[in-house]
Amino acid sequence: MTDPDLRSLIDDPARVLRHDRAELRTRLDALPEGEGGVGREVFTQAEAVFGAAPVTSAEFASWLHFAATVLGHHAYADRIAAARPGLPWRTVWAWWRPVGAYEAEPNLSGDRSAEMYEADGRPLLRVRALWCPDTWFDPATGRVLPAPADGAELRDDVEPDGPWLFDTDEESWALRAPDGWEEPVPLEGGRHVFLDARGVAVVERNEAALADWPTGGAEAAERTPADGGPWFRPGTRGTAGPLTADRLDAVFGAAGVVRVAADDLPGALVHAPTRALLAEAGLPRHWAAGVTSFATAAAFLEPGPEGLLRVGSFDLGHCDPGEVFLHPVTGAVGMRQPDGSHGPGGDAVFPLVRDLDSFVRFLEGVRRYMGACWDPYEGEDGVKAFLRAMAEVDAGALAEGAPGAEVWEHLFASITELGVDGY
Predict the structure, then answer these.
(1) In whole angstroms, how far apart are CA 379 and each of 42, 228, 279?
(2) What is the extent of the structural domain holding 176?
(3) Do 206 and 254 fall into the same domain?
(4) What sections of 205-355 are H helices per DSSP?
(5) Would you say residue 238 lies in a domain?
(6) Is 237 part of any domain?
(7) Looking at residue 98, what DSSP letter applies?
């Protein structure tokens, strides 16, 4: 590394918590983009979420612990807690979108709720939102559970066994309030469920540390953002890698992806990359955003006009549907939309996107960037990041004057211009 001592320092939570944050931040910002490890990820994520305002080492330990848990660095989180046992609160578990990470789940934009239930004597946490199917958690561990087979009873009798964390009342603790954490759901044992558009987290009070903590209420003032922004180890985030079955299943659900065994693909389809994509990664059966949607054709990959193969169709709103076709030799994807409201119109198929891989990446991209476009963190520009990522997929399809550019502009507007409710 350019700064030889920095890697060992930043990967040791005890040393981080003893170090001057401003100086450490400056050294991290000076590193080349490709250098760093888990410690750099956690430090920059903590400041991206909570800001760079000075707080005590103990409270900063809570921030680091939250960031490490969100990022899945649980061993590092344990080391933070061990290094600073006096941290005022800790994150038990979190299902949360990190700042600067564009992931399809969790996306709790729009109307959302977190409620406690009980089934067969077992407590369950049910989370749901407009773009998130009902998800059931073990509230103690965060493990995702199947929906109760015989139903569950809503529990509305859980009362907080102490003050709320991050209460702005002057008699409450003087803590920095995370953005959007309001009206938590109480659990036993000093734990609370916090819910916002980026996810759900269970946090726990440290009674011993808070016994002598200054009061004055949680600070609700606008946070001071860090200059450098979040950083991720190269290759661990983003969408630049190949499309895989696991990747598409994570975005669309295993039942929401269609794959065709190589032996069952049409003989006319000779474009090797497309054959591999359909057999190994797949294609979304259904996709939706705003008032638009896509569904694979009932006659999937059967012959269509102009020697093309049928893929599916877009419902574009109050106009003719857009039928999507695949060229079996070149792999190019085209569309036919007779009324011309989105494209040249007529019965001819016009070019839509370079190939089926790019087509799938466009649909996946909308789902991945939805939450960041609708509910970005302060300093996060989800729309700009989304459009930049899609241009990297196939800039030619989006260029002004391209035959399919108007189609993609209409589809992308579902998250770049319209809100979570489609308006």
Answers:
(1) 18, 11, 40
(2) 6-210
(3) no
(4) 207-210, 245-252, 272-276
(5) no
(6) no
(7) P
